[in-house]
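Quick start: load a record and inspect it. Here is ATP-grasp domain-containing protein:
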Amino acid sequence: MILLDTAYVSPLLAETLIEKKVKILDIQQQLILNHKSEDEKNLVKVFQQEDLIIMNSEEAVQILNEYYAESHVTKTANLFKNKFAFRKRLAESYPNFFFLETTSGELGQLDLSSLPYPLIFKPTVGYSSVGVYRVENAQEFQSIIDKMEEKMEQSSEDDSKDVLGSETFIIESYIEGQEFAIDLFFDEKNDPVVLNLFARMFKDEKDMSDRIYYTSKQVLQNYLAPITEYLQGLGEIFNLRKMPLHVELRMDDEGTIVPIEVNPLRFAGAGTTELGSFAYGVNSYDYFFEQKKPDWPALINAMDKKIYSFTCAEFEGEIKIDDGLVIHHELLQQQFHHILEYRHIPYEHGTTFAVIFFSSESLAQNDHILSLDFMEYVEKKEYLYVNN
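Running the structure step on this input writes:
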C-alpha cells in the first residue's frame, strides 16, 4: 500500500501504481482510492492487513500516528523523524559525536561560546534542508538563531507539526566528508537492498540546499559496497524488515561513515528517486513492491561513463506561493546541455517549481547549475507588460 500525497505524483510513480495494482490511500481524503470494499472504510483494519507500506510525502506520518500508532513501523518512523531520539539511539556507536536538544525558550540561555564549532543547527523534527544551518562561531550562531526563528515561523504555516517541529532544535557536530543519499528497503531477512546511491554537491561550505545530487558508474563502484555494509549494521540496530528508507550520510577520507538522518517509509522526494531509472534502469517503486534486488554487478557493468544528475529549482527569499508568478522554464532549460526530463512542479504546494534530470560528461555542468540564481527565472505578473 502507498500513502499518497496527490498534490504531486510523478508520471513514473503513477504508471507503476497502476501496473502493480497497488492499494492507494489518499492522505488528504483519508480514503482508499482503489480496491474498495466495506472493510477498507476502517483504516485501522487496512493498516493491520498490509505487509508493505510506503509513502511519497512525509505528511503521511500523521496518518500512521492516527490509525497505526502502536505498530513497530510507526514507532520506528517516529524515532527516525525525531533527530534527537535518533542520535541518542546511536550514541554508543559514536561516543565522540556531540549533540544536544534545546527548545525555543532555551536558545537565549545557551552559552554559545562553549560549544564545539563548527556545528549544525536544525529542527529536531524536519525534512529536506528546511531550517538547517552550518555554524562557525558564537557570533554567527546568534545571528542564525534570530533568522531561523523567523523562517520556522513562516514554514510552520504550511507544514504539520508531525513533519516540521519548530519548538525544539538539535545542535550537533558538523560531519566531514562526502555526502550521499540512498534509497533502499530492508528485506524479510533484515538485509539492506540498495536501490539508489546518489552523491550530493554543494556550492560552498555554507550551502545546505538540495540543489544537486548525482550518480555515475564511478560513484557506484567506489561507494556501493562500503555503504551497503554500513546499512547492514543499521538494520541490526533498528530491526527494519520490509521498511523503505531514504538515508543521508557522510563518509570521510578514511572511510568512516556517520549518518545524517534516516527518512522513514519513503524514497527521495518530488520524484527525484527516479534518477536511478535514467542512470541504471532501476525503478525504485517497482523493486520495492516486488521486493526485488538489483543485480548491481550487471547494472554497473552496463553503465556508460556519464554523470547523471538532478536539480530542484526552488523559490528563495520572501516570495509567497499565492503571488501571481510567471516561471520562465524555457530560459532555464537553456542552461543544460542534455536534459533527460524537465518536470514542471505545481509550486502552489511547496517551494520547488521544477525538477530537472540531466546528464553530462563531467561535473562542470553541475558546478554551473550550482552557480545559478533560480529566481532570475521567476517574475511576478504585476511586473510584466506588453509593448503595443
